[in-house]
Design brief:
The chain has 446 residues and is an alpha/beta fold. Helix content is 33%, strand content 15%. Strand 5 and strand 6 form a beta hairpin. The relative contact order is 0.19.
């Protein structure tokens, strides 16, 4: 068991996934070609979107459809995609990688990162409130959301834009509250608990690149990525949400940090890499850390985005090739100035839309790949066959990196996933490499 109370560690909001980024088009029997439609259910962050784009051939087109559990997660997905699409003229690749990881995995951020986040939120707020029929950017398409969901997004972005005051939530207190709740009487020996979870859990599961000092700092303060000297003390508003509690018979919404405090945001980009030099060890110790691996991976993904960049749609295209475009000062970057990626679109669907998709002719046998996160497996049902293409691939995240589960519970979860998939008419695809991180299924042959 993890050194803490079951289920409290993973939290009730999926701010990041419990598995590494995957190119979803290469996970089935054959690599998908041509025009591909991918449905993501509860992925929590854009890691799979970025990784899948990076694996595309030039002539391929990719349409990603996203369903999440809460509008707070949708808002954060939009923010992270916005940052990923910032043009190089306004923010260099190194700085963009740092800012992205900071917003992605840090409970507290630098003041200059907060400025960037506020400007992004302001642009996203305009986008969701002003565009009704046509998306302002193909990768930030919210036109299919319900009106009340768009209103909720606008409300969330407004909270992010507001200057933080003395009455604002203290992230350090919110984080510490969660750690105390999770560890209970073990709080006073928390360093030992952190060390146990790292060495007996994450390292045993093959995550040796996660560094002891960095992991302990994240567990204690929520700081996963410190790329440069700076003061990380401004609350990251994109990691705050409301959770409803019962108090004396009344339902009370409490705003705070309700995400993962055990597994680590390093899982998304920091434990796997094609560059094996980043995983070298010396005297049994990793030379590089999960932070180094995350930086290298995200930077490479951003370079892939730049290589698919289409023509700008604003007056920037009229400026001479050698002179900087006037709008490239990041203070004036609008959604129209973001990179346009050839053949790529990301569309957000309403929170309750999964079981309504079969009612629409458009989605009949439509999706080539369907992805379910571990937290959304319960939504996987027989209607999936109606929206899955005949040769579709179903990918389900397993519970390997949910540290509050023991080995028996983890194995039980994998069996449950296989059983649910079978009921939905999908069978395990066993010819692939055995992977205890994701389970892969294909439609049963009648």
């Amino acid at each position: 068991m993890s050194a803490g109370r079951v289920s409290e560690g993973a939290g009730c909001v999926t701010w990041w996934g419990f598995s590494p980024a995957r190119d979803l088009l290469s996970m089935g029997p054959v690599r998908l070609e041509g025009e591909v439609n991918v449905l993501l259910v509860g992925s929590g962050d854009p890691r799979h979107i970025l990784k899948t784009i990076a694996g595309l051939q030039n002539e391929q087109s990719l349409h990603v459809w996203v369903i999440e559990n809460s509008m707070e997660v949708v808002a954060r997905q939009l923010l992270l995609l916005y940052l990923a699409l910032m043009p190089q003229e306004s923010m260099g690749n190194n700085e963009k990688t740092e800012v992205f990881l900071e917003v992605f995995g840090n409970s507290e951020i630098r003041s200059q990162t907060e400025e960037t986040l506020r400007r992004a939120a302001s642009q996203l707020s305009l986008s969701v409130t002003e565009t009704l029929e046509t998306a302002t950017h193909p990768c930030l398409n919210t036109t299919l959301l319900k009106f009340k969901e768009r209103d909720e997004l606008a409300r969330i972005f407004k909270l992010w834009i507001q200057p933080q005051s003395s009455s604002s939530i203290s992230m350090s207190r919110a984080w510490d509250y969660r750690v105390r709740q999770h560890l209970g009487t073990r709080y006073d020996s928390k360093r030992g608990c952190f060390d146990w979870d790292l060495t007996m859990k994450l390292h045993e599961k093959g995550c040796g690149v996660i560094n002891k000092q960095q992991y302990a700092q994240w567990r204690e303060r929520g700081l996963a990525f410190e790329m440069r000297e700076g003061v990380y003390q401004v609350t990251n508003p994109s990691l705050l949400s409301s959770r409803v509690f019962s108090q004396r018979g009344d339902r009370v919404a409490v705003r705070g940090y309700w995400g993962d405090i055990v597994s680590s945001p390093c899982l998304a980009f920091g434990i796997e890499t094609d560059d094996k030099s980043l995983l070298k060890t010396q005297n049994g110790q990793h030379i590089k850390t999960a932070q180094d691996v995350s930086f290298a991976n995200v930077q490479a993904l951003f370079q892939s985005l730049s290589s698919r960049r289409g023509c700008p749609t604003t007056s920037q295209s009229d400026t001479g090739a050698g002179e900087p475009a006037p709008q490239t000062d990041r203070k004036s970057v609008t959604i129209k100035d973001l990179m346009r990626l050839n053949g790529i679109s990301v569309t957000f669907l309403p929170l309750d839309s999964l079981h309504k998709l079969p009612e629409k002719q458009k989605y009949f046998h439509f999706f080539n790949t369907i992805y379910f996160s571990a937290s959304c497996v319960h939504q996987l049902g027989p209607v999936m066959r109606q929206i899955a293409a005949p040769d579709a691939v179903l990918v389900v995240e397993l519970a390997k990196y949910i540290l509050d589960l023991n080995k028996e519970q983890e194995a039980g979860f994998a069996k449950k996933v296989a059983s649910i998939a079978l009921e939905a008419d999908f069978e395990p695809w066993n010819e692939g490499r055995t992977d205890d991180i994701h389970a892969v299924f294909t439609p049963q042959k009648k």
